[in-house]
Specification:
Layout: E1 7-12, E2 18-19, E3 25-26, E4 28-33, H1 34-58, E5 69-70, H2 79-89, E6 93-94, H3 102-112, H4 118-124, E7 130-135, E8 139-140, E9 144-152, E10 164-169, E11 179-180, E12 185-191, E13 197-205, E14 211-212, E15 214-215, E16 218-223, E17 236-239, E18 245-249, E19 257-265, E20 278-284, E21 294-301, E22 315-322, E23 328-334, E24 339-341, E25 344-345, H5 355-377, H6 382-388, H7 391-407, H8 412-459, H9 462-481, H10 484-502, H11 506-517, H12 527-543, H13 546-559, H14 563-566, E26 577-578
Helix pairs in contact: 1-2, 5-7, 5-8, 7-8, 8-9, 8-10, 9-10, 11-12, 11-13, 12-13
């Protein structure tokens, strides 16, 4: 009512009459003015406008690129929202479509643009007739519409040779003529009447000209607005052993989508082992930290499923697919075993959401945010500090805590909302962390490039300079996107190139040997062997036997403990793969 009036009453109806202490009935009617209502919703309206602004930026657009808006949903009738939309973006709004029914209109148009799925087609097929599997766009903006098809025989029969197909419009405006088939398939381009539903009839003839009954024998193509493929709303990928998230299918990808990546196992699995398995958690979200994304299921390679040992470091090809209905499938292929694994356990690390778990999760996120704020206060960049210390961060914390408090009542919807808001908070924390870490990551990259260039000038070859140039070119887009993870990867490659060049020099192996021999206790279980190798290294150095010294350094290097074993994160991922 406040969309039309300046003031109204909120009337609360209960199942039974409410009475006061004197047993008199009470009618609950609360007066509210439009200005009061607007002050209550202003924060949510601004959040909505911020989301719209972010969508435009993600697509590389500005408000000037949008010709008009179509508003969807009853809340878009609120005058305050419409005014704020106009004030902030100044995009013309099309009011000719009812916001209450536009979703139904859109759904109808989208449904009309979809071909019947293969499963439904197969279940309804009449096997007493020849079947034609058609391929075309039900809605298109083009006047010439490609139409193809594959012909299948009746049950337990074969197709005659020399088949020909004829497609004619029911309006009589267009005829394909007799189309010859190749390997029982055909193709043509139908001519459409503009802005109309164009219906067509299909006829099939043998080489003598006899008509063969087919199914389907008609189809329609609408000329008008073309419906694009539905986009993927969140990225989907796998969790790696270091706790990072490797994205396969990126947010915004058009459905259906499918991608395959190569990984390596981090443990050995022997035949018959039930408990020692390769876990491949599948997650959905945008955070580079795997546990901050929603868990969809875990692909498992179990010892009970294999007949030969799968050693550590083995290649594993992981393929993730998603169809138009957003049904996700995952499979892992081991080239060594020549075996495919596609058993996904949905409940391995996805326990039922409980309010107490949400509270723990929230407090952990709050601690992470407080650490970021402390870090921001200690840096000299005011612009970065302002981003991290903005009021919106504190507002988010307060709102999420309120959602967690509501979830304690046990309402499933409140629990689900609180879980979603905590994940959104984690994504924001990841984003803020990237803001803080980016200058440091960029500085490390620039230092690595500078050092590598100096070493190439002294000891390098032309191919070394070409490799560095290639890495710098690859880094240009990464720097533009401020992609920390990939810039760190490029930095490692630059350092690796630097090490490769230095390794050609005897001085490098001498310096490496001196660095290792100064602290033999770091070899732990291999200390006795390491001490013997260090003594052999001293002798090789005295003799200037650099080939032997290289072999000794290599063996000593293999005995060094892994860096990730020296420092254990708060969460140890159970993923059994790495890049």
């Amino acid at each position: 009512e406040l969309s039309r009036r300046e003031e109204t009453n909120i009337i609360i109806y209960t199942g039974e009459k409410i009475k006061d202490r004197d047993k008199k009935s009470i009618d609950i009617s609360i007066p509210i003015k439009r200005a009061e209502f607007e002050s209550l919703i202003s924060h949510d309206v601004e959040k909505t406008l911020n989301l719209f602004d972010q969508v435009l930026k993600n697509q590389g657009l500005s408000s000037d690129d949008i010709s008009h808006l179509i508003l969807v949903g009853g809340s878009t009738k609120i005058p305050y929202l419409r005014n704020r939309l106009k004030e902030r973006f100044n995009i013309p709004t099309n009011y000719s479509i009812d916001p209450m029914t536009v979703v139904a209109h859109g759904a109808a148009i989208f449904a009309a643009a979809q071909l019947v799925s293969k499963d439904i087609t197969e279940s309804r097929r009449n096997y007493s007739k020849v079947f034609i599997k058609l391929d075309y766009k039900p809605i298109t903006i083009n006047i010439e519409a490609p139409v193809g098809g594959k012909i299948f025989p009746k049950r337990d029969e074969s197709l005659p040779s020399g088949l020909r197909v004829q497609i004619t419009s029911k309006s009589g405006d267009w005829d394909s003529g007799l189309l010859e088939t190749q390997e029982d398939a055909f193709y043509t381009e139908a001519i459409l009447r503009p802005n109309k539903v164009n219906s067509f009839k299909i006829s099939l003839f043998d080489k003598e000209g006899n008509n063969i009954e087919v199914e389907p024998n008609t189809f329609s193509i609408t000329h008008g607005m073309e419906i694009g493929q539905a986009p993927l709303i969140r990225s989907i990928g796998v969790e790696l052993a270091d706790g990072s998230f490797s994205k396969h299918l990126l947010k915004g990808a058009r459905l259906p989508a499918r991608r395959r990546f190569l990984y390596y196992t981090v443990k050995t699995v022997s035949p018959g082992e039930e408990t020692n398995a390769i876990n491949i958690p599948i997650r959905e979200g945008e955070s580079n930290i795997a546990e901050h994304n929603a868990h969809l299921g875990t692909l498992k390679i179990n010892g009970s499923e294999i007949k030969r040992t799968l050693p550590e470091g083995s290649e594993i090809e992981i393929t993730l697919s998603i169809d138009e209905s957003r049904h996700i499938t995952a499979k892992a292929f081991s080239p060594l075993l020549n075996q495919t694994f596609n058993k996904v356990l949905v409940d391995v690390v996805s326990p039922k959401l409980e309010p107490k778990h949400l509270e723990v999760d929230f407090k952990k996120s709050e601690e992470e945010l407080n650490k970021l704020i402390l870090k921001a206060n200690n840096i000299g960049d005011d612009e970065i500090k302002n981003v991290v210390l903005s009021d919106s961060v504190n507002e988010d914390i307060d709102e999420v805590w309120n959602d967690v408090e509501l979830a304690k009542g046990g309402d499933p919807d409140a629990i689900e909302k609180a879980d979603r808001r905590i994940k959104e908070l984690k994504e924001k924390i990841d984003s803020l962390n990237s803001v803080l870490e980016w200058p440091i990551t960029l500085e490390k990259y620039n230092e690595a490039v500078s050092d590598c260039k100096s070493i190439i000038d002294k000891h390098g070859k032309k191919e070394d300079l070409d490799k560095l140039t290639s890495l710098k070119k690859e880094a240009e887009k990464i720097i533009k996107d401020k992609d920390i993870k990939h810039l760190e990867s490029i930095t490692k490659e630059v350092i690796s190139l630097q090490t490769t060049i230095l390794a050609r020099e005897d001085d490098f192996w001498i310096a490496a040997f001196h660095e290792i021999k100064n602290n033999p206790s770091i070899f732990h279980a291999h200390q006795r062997r390491a001490e013997k190798l260090i003594e052999e290294g001293r002798i090789a150095l005295q003799r200037k036997d650099f080939d032997s010294l290289k072999s000794i350094v290599f063996e000593l290097w293999n005995y060094l403990p892994e860096l990730e074993r020296e420092k254990i994160d708060e969460k140890i991922s159970d993923s059994g793969i790495r890049k």
